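Much of our argument rests on the idea that a fold can be written as discrete symbols. This step matters because it turns folding into a mapping between discrete strings. The record that follows shows the chain in one-letter code together with its fold in token form.
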Amino acid sequence: MHAGPFWIGPPWEEPPAGTRAIVIDPGRAFGTGAHPTTRLCVELVAALAPESLLDVGCGSGVIAIAAALAGAHVLAVDVDPAAIDATERNARANGVAVDARELDALADPLPPADAVVANVSLEVVEALLPRVDAPLVVASGYLVHDEPHAHRFRRRERRTLDGWAADVFERAQ
């Protein structure tokens, strides 16, 4: 499938000629790249093109790899060791550097970044927003009718696909 400037698919499929491919083998981690929220987050992160990105709940690493291919320095975190393993394997397979670490983003200190992406759930997004040290947050993992409480952020953009939503929040001045 396509998301922003990327084709995302498994290693057993051939990407169309002339596309920027992200090859994903999810292994035991969550995420093939086909879910609407993942596609929306990849599009938004590619459009923002931050210098540094913190990917919270990285799963198989799709969004982290897209950001790295777009030139960002990426730290990908997840509470699931299988997700860290899958992100590291997929980053190597795509020829990019992604620093993947096991971390609980709702309990452990979070490093600063130019942008944070969290494609998780509405509850986790709302708990995470007060903790991040970034001017921009791409958030998803919830439905179109959901309105995340953004704390000290304001919504800058919303995209929707197949009943799902993704938002770009910027820190309020």
